TrEMBL record:
It comes from Bradyrhizobium aeschynomenes. The chain crosses the membrane at residues 12-34, 46-70, 91-111, 123-141, 153-174, 186-208, 220-245, 270-298, 319-338, 344-363, 370-388. PANTHER family: AMINO ACID TRANSPORTER-RELATED, L-METHIONINE_BRANCHED-CHAIN AMINO ACID EXPORTER YJEH. The keyword Membrane applies. This is Amino acid permease.
């Protein structure tokens, strides 16, 4: 396992690493959720995004500290092993795989919806989703030496275009409607929308699997995470502000497109859908790269088959192929109505909360001190109530815990 990690080490600098982390964390939420929240809260919606940005900060700091101090392809699973042993390592590893296997296909379907609008294609949404997944996986097959270039091409281009388009639309919206600043009217309603927004800020634990790809992870990884967090929050708040200032009255499921129609009626119809497709391809690309690192780690630990730990030209091809196959399988399950996109997002979100709680407690155990305890306490207090209110998700988490117990038991028997 150490030999494999050495082959992956040292190919991302601060800028390319930050772009890859941003790509992992910027998904469909940027183009959809601001409208759904605005429909429920009106002018109070911007405060829900501000609150979620603040509440996500302890999670970001926790994962940045752990990733910098203990760089590993295992990410959160490795931290769980250091703090608690092999069982929680297996559990966290399976939770991350479960979250990505459920959340990423849902993102691919959203990306396919944008692609269908942009191209006026007659292909089924699920066929287009498979194309989006294959495109992202193709970029993810980049070897360690070419990864930095792929990141700059895929993530850099999509993020630059996103920031540029949002900046222009926001400027036009301000010129057209001015800026209205009001104090929040319904704090309880704002709090009620935070779980919906939260999934947009999930992904920092997956980014930790990329720490060994940095040339100097102990110095650069934490800074890259912080810079990425600032950029992600700025983009989400900019999108929410655009919807707020534009004051859209309809099409709340495509709010950025509706805002563009109102403030820039001469803009091409394909611009925002193409932007959405590119952002989601970049998100899938970054996530597949990160999850392939976790699969490498779990195969080295005996939790997954050893063949998945194979590297070819510095690329974990078998791991990427496995991720790609799982995502396509779940997309097909959605087409057959065995799963629903809302269910996939909800279950993935609960996985992330469980991972954050375990990682926070691991930080408190591994790096004792007031800061670690404050971070751990804030994450547990914020996350536990949300999890306890989702009975179906708790059943799913319990099933994952049983599966992790079985995998850990089988692994011990092989070692004996």
């Amino acid at each position: 396992m150490d030999e494999i990690q050495r082959k992956l080490e040292g190919h991302l600098g601060l800028l390319s690493g930050m772009l890859l982390i941003v790509a992992v964390n910027l998904g469909s939420g940027i183009l959809v959720i601001p409208g759904l929240v605005f429909e429920k809260l009106g002018n109070d919606a911007i405060f829900a995004w501000l609150a979620c940005s603040v509440l996500s900060a302890p999670i970001l700091v926790t994962m940045a500290i752990l990733g910098s101090a203990y760089p590993s392809t295992g990410g959160a699973a490795y931290y769980a092993n250091l703090a608690f042993g092999r069982y929680l390592e297996s559990l966290v590893g399976l939770l991350v795989l479960g979250a990505t296997a459920l959340g990423l296909p849902a993102l691919a379907i959203v990306g396919a919806t944008n692609l269908k609008i942009a191209t006026s294609s007659e292909l089924d949404i699920h066929c287009l989703a498979v194309i989006v997944i294959l495109l992202a996986a193709w970029f993810a097959l980049s070897g360690s030496k070419t990864l930095s270039g792929s990141v700059r091409f895929v993530s850099g281009a999509s993020i630059s275009l996103l920031v540029g388009v949002l900046g222009v639309l926001l400027t036009l919206a301000v010129r057209t409607n001015g800026v209205r600043v009001e104090f929040p009217k319904n704090v309880l309603a704002i709090a009620g929308q935070i779980p919906l927004i939260f999934f947009s800020f999930a992904g920092w634990e997956i980014a930790c699997n990329l720490s060994v790809d940095f040339r100097d992870p102990r110095r650069a990884f934490g800074l890259a995470m912080i810079l990425a967090f600032i950029l992600v929050c700025s983009v989400y708040l900019g999108s929410a502000a655009l919807v707020h200032i534009s004051g859209i009255k309809s099409n709340f499921d495509t709010p950025v497109l509706q805002a563009a129609v109102q403030v820039a009626p001469t803009a091409p119809d394909w611009l925002v859908p193409v932007l959405g497709t590119l952002v989601i391809v970049a998100n899938l690309f970054g996530s597949v790269v990160a999850v392939s690192r976790l699969i490498l780690y779990l195969s080295g630990q005996g939790i997954l088959p050893a063949g998945l730990g194979y590297l070819r030209d510095g690329a974990p091809r078998n791991s990427v192929f496995l991720v790609m196959g799982c995502l396509i399988t779940v997309v097909m399950a959605d087409q057959l109505r065995l799963l629903r996109i809302e269910t996939m997002f909800g279950m993935a979100g609960m996985n992330f909360l469980a991972i954050y709680i375990i990682s926070a407690i691991a930080l408190a155990k591994l790096r004792r001190g007031l800061v670690s305890w404050l971070l751990a306490g804030s994450i547990v207090v914020l996350s536990a109530p949300i999890m306890l209110n989702a009975t179906s998700s708790l059943i799913y988490l319990a099933s994952t815990a049983l599966l992790a117990s079985s995998a850990n038991r089988n692994n011990r028997m092989r070692l004996l």
